[in-house]
Design a protein that fits this description.
By secondary structure, this protein is mainly α. The chain is 43% helix and 3% strand.
């Protein structure tokens, strides 16, 4: 897929949808609403697909912070995300993606473009289940009805929305089986072949399977047999099971007009880092944590160190002169990683201190999944266009995620599958996908081709193949890592875990880098992974609650009532972690 063309199409969609001079308006002469026959389904479908990636990225950021995958400023959970902070996410769902979906379904139905309709229904189901997972009861049945509907839509019960989304996904399966012209552009699976239909069907089944697992321990089953339905779907043929089926949005490298790069790339590479990585999360990838004295093979792909040594300057890192908080365990990392972890520069969970001039010192996103740089200890700064130039992905639903979900279901729901084998398959799939991104780093590959030794100085010091030999994980290193984790699955206490499910979710936690939505759900559903770094301030509140309703909703809907902090999503039975 030509990504420049994709974003040109998106711009054209916006122009067409917004124009009232060249397109027919609806029969009731509402100048703000288009008649279905005035909408170009292919262009609007492109907007829907882009909208899926957009809403995923926005709520994924919050989920990543809440699970300590990236740094949360805090210091308290009930003020880390204010209603005003969440206005953009809410608008992206309701005024963006869902508005496009509600326009596309009737327009495409009228033209018998049933594949378009099916994808729109998938987008709708994904959007509403995600809204429920983060906000609980939300407007659904009365939402997005235009001037003819209720401008103050009521909230529907979360379990009812989940059930309605199952119906939407079943309808989408049926729509795919109807005779239809395929879309001009499939922005997720590429091209417009019939093979893509099979991949979209696997996505549908996977989204259903995920919902069944989600509610299985809650005592609330809106599906009338979630366990039996999950058991029926638990196999490779029904679900996403290989990298070829991965549901991920791919970004490009174009800098402007439009900026097609991964949205997190520019923040770290254009003018110095804009976010902090999580000290606790990075620590999990080092030999000091992972067990068997082995670094995680994904470490140098996930995180790029702009500075490979630790600082002793309090003006750069305030905590270097402070003692570890008394509520931290002896094994909990604090402030900086030491030994092999030196230079992984981030922040402790909930650290809300002022920001020093450290944008060119912090560890930044690596080549996976954001399209940054591979770390071979070059000790240079990230810069605009360096590494893979933003050629990354939004990892919405990968086969490795599904492997871990199936392993969980085998343990907790008795699906009959081999949880240990699925656990191993998920680890290997995640590692394989991650290290494949190394070829995207243009600077690094120049080094490997012996063109240059230092991509920043452009000096040629002669042949140098040592970075590849030294830092890219060998097959032996990968096998050693996987075998150590399999031994940990068999004996969780040997790796400091409580039971096999803890081991499974911990590895899902590491594989899910870039996807804060599904790991936040797993965290609230299972109570794992354990051994998470505590929040910097003791008594910070309980992590795992639903978000506050956004101000844009509370202030404009007469039926809206703000929630009390601490409410939980309907399927959650566990308390959150501190």
């Amino acid at each position: 897929m030509n990504l420049k063309l994709t974003f040109f199409i998106y711009t054209l969609v916006m122009l067409l949808v917004c124009s009232c001079e060249t397109l027919d308006i609806n029969p009731k002469n509402n100048p703000n609403e288009l008649a279905p026959n005035a909408i170009e389904p292919d262009l609007l479908l492109n907007s829907v697909q882009l909208g899926i990636a957009n809403v995923f990225n926005e709520l994924s950021n919050e989920g990543s912070e809440l699970t300590r995958m990236t740094h949360m400023f805090g210091p308290l959970y009930n003020n880390a995300y204010t209603p005003e902070n969440l206005d953009g996410e809410w608008s992206s769902f309701y005024a963006g993606l869902l508005a496009d979906v509600e326009a596309l379904i009737p327009a495409a139905t009228e033209k018998e473009l049933f594949t378009h309709v099916a994808i729109a229904k998938i987008a709708k189901a994904y959007a509403y289940t995600t809204l429920v997972d983060f906000f609980g009861d939300v407007p659904f049945s009365e939402a997005i009805k235009g001037n003819e509907g209720n401008t103050n839509p009521k909230r529907d019960a979360s379990a009812d929305i989940y059930k309605a989304c199952e119906v939407l996904l079943d309808e989408a399966l049926a729509d795919f089986d109807k005779t239809s012209i395929l879309p001009g552009n499939d922005l997720f699976f590429g091209g417009n072949t019939t093979d893509n239909v099979a991949k979209w069907k696997k996505l549908i089944n996977t989204l259903k399977f995920r919902m069944y697992v989600q509610v299985s321990a809650s005592g609330t089953d809106p599906f009338g047999g979630a366990v039996a339905k999950a058991q029926a779907l638990a196999n490779d043929a029904s679900l996403i099971s290989s990298e070829a089926d991965d549901f991920a949005f791919t970004y490009g490298t174009n800098l402007a007009n439009p900026d097609s790069r991964h949205p997190l790339y520019g923040g770290d590479y254009d003018n110095g880092a804009s976010v902090y990585q999580s000290i606790g999360y990075m620590h999990r990838f080092t030999a000091a944590f992972a067990g068997a004295n082995l670094d995680d093979p994904r470490l140098r792909y996930y995180f790029y160190r702009q500075e490979t040594t630790n600082t002793t300057d309090v003006n750069e890192k305030r905590c270097v002169t402070q003692d570890k908080p008394s509520h931290f365990a002896a094994s909990d990392v604090f402030c900086q990683l030491t030994g092999p972890g030196a230079g992984y520069w981030g922040r402790d969970h909930g650290d809300a201190a002022g920001i020093p001039p450290d944008g060119l010192l912090r560890t930044i996103y690596g080549v996976y999944p954001v399209g940054g740089k591979f770390d071979y200890s070059q000790d240079t700064r990230g810069r605009q266009g360096s590494g893979a130039g933003g050629y990354g992905i939004a990892p919405i639903m990968l086969s490795s995620f599904v492997d871990f979900l199936r392993a969980e279901a085998a343990i907790t729901m008795g699906t009959g599958e081999d949880a240990r084998a699925l656990f191993e398959k998920g680890i290997r799939a995640s590692i394989a996908k991650t290290i494949s991104f190394g070829t995207r780093d243009v600077d690094y590959n120049k080094v490997l081709l012996n063109e240059i030794d230092d991509p920043n100085t452009k000096e040629d010091d002669g042949p140098d193949t040592s970075p590849k030999q030294k830092y890219e994980p060998s097959t032996t290193a990968i096998n050693n890592y996987v075998n150590a984790l399999l031994a940990g699955y068999d004996n969780p206490a040997s790796l400091g875990y409580t039971n096999p499910l803890d081991v499974v979710v911990s590895e899902f936690y590491k594989a899910a880098y870039g996807n804060g939505i599904d790991i936040y759900n797993a965290f609230r559903r299972t109570g794992f992974p354990s051994r998470l770094q505590p929040t910097l301030i003791e008594g910070s509140g309980e992590n795992g609650a639903l978000m506050f309703y956004p101000a844009v909703y509370i202030n404009t809907n007469s039926n809206a009532v703000q929630r009390v902090f601490g409410e939980k999503v309907f399927w959650q039975t566990l308390n959150g972690l501190k």
